[in-house]
Amino acid sequence: MFARLVYESFRRQKRRKLLAGAAITLGVTVATAMIAVATDIGDKINRELRSLGANLVITPQEDSLDLEIGGVNLKPPTDGAFLNEADLPKIKGTFWHNNITAFAPVLPVNVSIERSGQTHDASLIGTYFAKRVIFGRDEFTTGVRTTNKWWKVTSGDWPDDNSRDILVGERLAAELGASAGDSLNISGRALRVAGILSTGGAEDNQIVAPLGLAQEILGRPGAIRRVYVSALTKPEDAFARRDPKSLSGAMYDRWYCSPYPQSIAFQLQEAIPNSHAEQIRQVAQNEGAVLTRIEGLILLITLAALFCSALAVSAAMATSVFERRAEVGLMKALGAGKWAVASFFLAEGALLALIAGSVGFAAGGLLAHRIGRSIFDSTISVSPVLLPVVLIVAIVVTFAGSATAIRRAVGLDPVFALRGEL
Amino acid sequence: MFLRMLFRAAVLRRGRAAAALLAVIVAAAVATAMLNLFVDVQAKLQREFRNYGANVILVGKDGASLPPDALQRAELILAGRGIAAPFAMVVARTSSGQPIVVFGVDFDRIRQLDRWWSVSQWPSRSQQALIGVRAVRAVAPKNQPFDLSFHGHTVKVTPAGTVQTGAAEDSRIYLSLADFAAWAGVQPSTIEVAANGSRQEVEAVLTQLSQALPEADVRPVRQIMEGEARVLGKTRLTLLAAVSLIILTAALCVLSTLMGWVFDRRRDFAIMKALGASGRLLNAFFAAEAAAVGATGAVVGFILGVGIATWIGRVNFHAPVSPRFSVLPVVFLGSVVVTLLSAILPISVLRRVQPAVILRGE
Question: Which of A1, A371, A408, B359 is the most exposed place for a label (fewest CB within 10 A)?
Answer without folding.
Answer: A1
